[in-house]
Amino acid sequence: MSWYSFILLSVPEAFILALFLFILFRINVRDNTQHLILFAVIYGGFTFLLSVYFDTSYKPFLTFTMFILLMLLLFRFKPVQSLLLGLSAFVTLGLMELFLTLILIHVFPINLNYAEILSDPWTRILFSYITALIPLLLLTMLLHKLRLKIDLFALISK
Questions:
Q1: What confidence tens digit (pLDDT) does each residue in 140-152 have?
Q2: Which range marks the domain in which residue 56 is found?
Q3: Which of 29, 44, 115, 129 could form a disulfide with 14 if both were Cys (CB 3.0 to 4.6 A apart)?
Q4: 151 three-class SS
């Protein structure tokens, strides 16, 4: 993975994912803007380094753990809230990539070979933007516009 993947893929993905969660769970974005940017840089850097230097099956567990730890440390959420945010993030991102990849396969007559996608950094970045980043950003904007939110703090306190 090339160094520019950190700037073009890892950091935006972390930022948009955290922004989506904040909008979805009624967490104030304006009060946490600096922490969101710091989260995106740290978490994006962590996932980038894992992609470059580690080729193990522990990567999903390590990224999930780091996500929860950063939510605990940077935003001072309770452990249960951080766990719910982490689960929501991973489920949302996974389902979005899965469904949009399947839609791409059926709509366009392309033969998706993941080895080819992962081998070329620009193809990987483009594919990630098409299947995850742009749709997640559009979903975030839609949630914000429609004011569809889940009150995470009230949900946990009950």
A1: 999 889 887 777 6
A2: 4-157
A3: 44
A4: coil
- Residue with structure tokens 């990849």? 101
The CA-CA-CA angle for residues 63, 98, 128, to 5°, reads: 65
pTM of the model: 0.85
CA angle centred on 118, ends 113 and 123, rounded to 5°:
90
130 DSSP assignment: I
Q: Tally DSSP H helices, then E strands, for the chain.
A: 9, 0
- Rounded to an integer, the average pLDDT of 70-88 is 93
Query: What is the domain count for the chain?
Result: 1
With beta carbons less than 8 A apart as the criterion, state whether 16 and 140 touch: yes
Cα separation, 26 vs 156, in Å, equals: 13
Does residue 90 register a pLDDT over 90? Answer: yes
pLDDT of residue 42: 95
Enter the tokens of residue 68: 């929860």
The alpha carbon of 116 is separated from its chain's Cα centroid by a whole number of angstroms, namely: 23
pLDDT in tens, 102-142: 887 777 766 666 677 677 888 888 888 888 889 999 999 99
Closest CA to 11 of 38, 33, 32: 38
